[in-house]
Write a structure and sequence with these properties.
Chain B: One of its GO terms (molecular function) is 4 iron, 4 sulfur cluster binding. The complex is a heterodimer of chains A (228) and B (409). In chain A, helix 1 runs antiparallel to helix 2, helix 2 packs across helix 5 and helix 5 packs across helix 7. With 228 residues, chain A is mostly helical. Chain A has a single domain, classed as Transmembrane di-heme cytochromes, Chain C (Fumarate Reductase Cytochrome B subunit), CATH 1.20.950. Helix content of chain B is 40%, strand content 10%. In chain B, helix 2 packs across helix 3.
């Protein structure tokens, strides 16, 4: 066993908040989305639609805020250190770690025995996180193509026309919900399969001792048990 | 050229075929009764028939040519149920229906001649019902010894406006559905291809609601203008809102009161038909306001979920309402993968299930390889760093590396 120390500097408070908003909104959007697709729980329908539209806007705004904050909030580029860099550097694949993609994939396929050294996020993780804002924005767009008050606005009507009508748009919106569901499955699995410490840090800011990492030299330089 | 209609000519024509004036008036009486007008209307019918035989007779009425393409004549049948003004008034007082395969009493050569004369005189409306068939070099539909497409081109080129009546005329309708062997498409798309520049008004529906047609005719004939059209050249006032927006069962939708099964207690209460696949929320039309069949009722009032018959993108026969909406009682259409028809939900749940199973299997792998308690031990040196010892990024401190080796890390 070996894991890096989990310090709060990896996930500063603003990002803990946006993460919570993402979590709550996505879960509510999925539950209400299923209900709107087919009213399994009829009495919930009216509430479901209100919550769905509200959470859709909140998720979109939250996404934009989170992306903008990446350019002026600092966070640790990796676990095991309290030093920080501007956040966007930690989730864009960087020159000093993008070559680790193969190592990560091999590790997850059990083709590599030892744990790859990398940044806070592994390379496949970085790429999937980069796609999430794109996914949220496209999802928001397809949602507004289906939402009555906006469906006839040229910008949305043109998209509906392009994909072959409202039925196709509905199906795209529906399929994309499953992309979110699949992402959440993988995300939950990978975040917790090697222990719950990353989740405790991300959600509750609870630090955990472990190995200390030098993000400049890419080497483990010691251990900090945080007096556990 | 002689363009005036002559009753005597018409009588000559009849007598040459062995039809006496008396027989003709009897026929007119029968037609009037069949149309629900009563026998007293026979002279009016007679006058209309006489006037309409020679198409170039213009008089005070606006000439209309009504051509059947690949149609079931359902839109004509629907037109006979128009409420206001009644069909006889429309045909006798609003327009001069110079050619109609279904409604004209005359047939054969004289009808084709009437059409030719009307086209030559110009300033008329062409109502085109049914799909345009391009298949088999246009031979998929032949009328009066000419391909159906030739009839359309000929009649459209000189028209003031073309009304594509019914979803088939708008984009091929159900004839455009897979595999569309007859090459069905809509009037607007065909005329664009043929390079004929004439305003097209699209009135979808299967059949088209007769009140919609009358509203367009009234605009053109009485106000002398086309109605406001949306991006799909459909009258905006009719086709810019969804069925759902104006549905009489909308209150039940808002309350969460739904019909899940035909024959159920909920159905008897008239609850919302959304779970039975109602296409109201995605079908743009004002059926629930206009109503059908003498404005007596409409699908949803009669207990049927909307099946989206007004869905018709004039530029894309593939987006015909049948393909887009079947199976009608499911919330989604079927997707076609080769010959396999599958619901989107099946694909989505299938892939998600496979992913979940793969993660469980992977989890066992993680357990077996002892990675669940913090993961495997870290690699000593990243492979890339090992291969590129002289690169500035990711250089390991030599001393540190030695220390690591000493400590067996």
């Amino acid at each position: 066993m070996a894991h890096l120390a989990h310090y709060r500097e990896a996930h500063p408070l603003p990002f803990v908040i946006t993460h919570w908003i993402n979590l709550v909104c996505m879960v509510l959007l999925i539950i209400t989305g299923f209900s709107i697709h087919f009213p399994f729980w009829p009495e919930f329908m009216g509430i479901a639609r209100g919550v769905h539209v509200f959470c859709g806007f909140v998720l979109f705004i939250n996404c934009i805020v989170r992306v903008l904050m990446a350019f002026f909030v600092k966070s640790s580029p990796t676990g095991g250190t309290r030093s920080q860099v501007t956040d966007f550097k930690t989730w864009l694949p960087q020159k000093d770690n993008r070559h680790q993609a193969g190592a990560w994939i091999k590790y997850y396929l059990f083709l590599k025995k030892d744990h790859p050294l990398g940044a806070k996020l592994g390379v496949p993780q970085k790429i999937s996180y980069l796609l999430i804002p794109v996914l949220i924005i496209v999802m928001f767009y397809t949602g507004l193509c289906l939402w009555n008050p906006t469906m006839n606005i040229g910008f949305f009507a043109a998209g509906t026309d392009l994909v072959g009508g409202l039925m196709s748009m509905r199906i795209i919106h529906y399929f994309m919900m499953y992309v979110f569901i699949c992402f959440m499955f993988i995300h939950l699995y990978l975040a917790n399969i090697e222990g719950l410490s990353p989740t405790k840090l991300m959600l509750f800011r609870k630090e955990h001792g472990g190995l200390v990492y030098d993000p400049d030299k890419h080497v483990i330089v010691g251990e900090d048990d945080l007096k556990h | 050229m002689e363009t005036e209609a002559k009753v005597s000519e018409f009588q000559d024509l009849l007598s040459s075929r062995g039809v006496s004036r008396r027989d003709f008036m009897k026929l007119c009486g029968a037609i009037a009764v069949a149309a629900g007008l009563g026998e007293l209307a026979a002279p009016r019918v007679a006058q209309a028939l006489e006037n309409s035989v020679i198409g170039a007779t213009k008089g005070n009425l606006y000439p209309v040519i009504w051509i059947e393409g690949a149609s079931c004549t359902g839109c004509t049948e629907s037109f006979a149920q128009v409420e206001s003004p009644d069909p006889a008034s429309v045909v006798l007082e609003l327009i001069s229906l110079n050619y109609s395969e279904t409604l004209s009493a005359a047939a054969g050569h004289s009808m084709e001649e009437a059409k030719a004369q009307t086209i030559e005189a110009g300033d008329y409306i062409l109502i085109y019902e049914g799909a345009v068939l391009e298949g088999w070099n246009g031979q998929a539909l032949r009328v009066a010894d000419m391909p159906g497409t030739a009839h359309l081109e000929e009649a459209a080129a000189n028209a003031t406006a073309v009304v594509a009546l019914g979803s088939c005329a708008v984009n091929g309708g159900w004839m455009g559905a897979h595999p569309n062997t007859s090459g069905a498409l809509g009037v607007q798309a065909y005329l664009k291809k043929a390079g004929i520049d004439v305003p097209v008004v699209n009135i979808p529906g299967c059949p088209a609601n007769p009140e919609w047609l009358v509203s367009v005719l009234v605009d053109v004939v009485m106000l002398g203008k086309l109605p406001d059209l949306n991006a799909e050249n459909k009258p905006a006032g009719i086709f810019d809102q969804t069925i759902h927006d104006n549905c009489e069962r909308r209150g039940h939708f808002e309350n969460g009161e739904f019909v899940y099964q035909f024959g159920s207690e909920e159905e008897a209460k008239g609850y919302c038909l959304y779970p039975l696949g109602c296409r109201g929320p995605q079908t743009k039309s004002n059926c629930g306001v206009t109503l059908w069949n003498n404005r007596r009722s409409w699908c949803v009032q009669a207990g049927s979920p909307c099946i989206g018959c007004c869905e018709a993108n004039p530029n894309d026969p593939g987006q015909n309402w049948v393909e887009v909406n079947t199976p009608f009682y499911k919330r989604h259409r079927d997707l076609r993968i080769g010959d396999w028809m599958v619901q989107p939900g099946t694909i989505a749940l299938g892939i998600t299930g496979i992913l979940a199973a793969a993660l469980v299997v992977h989890g066992f792998g993680m357990k077996v390889s002892g990675r669940m308690d913090g993961g495997a031990d870290f690699e000593k040196v990243r492979k890339w760093d090992e291969k590129h010892p002289n690169q500035s990024i990711g250089q390991y401190d030599a001393a540190m590396k030695n220390d690591d080796e000493k400590e067996g890390r």
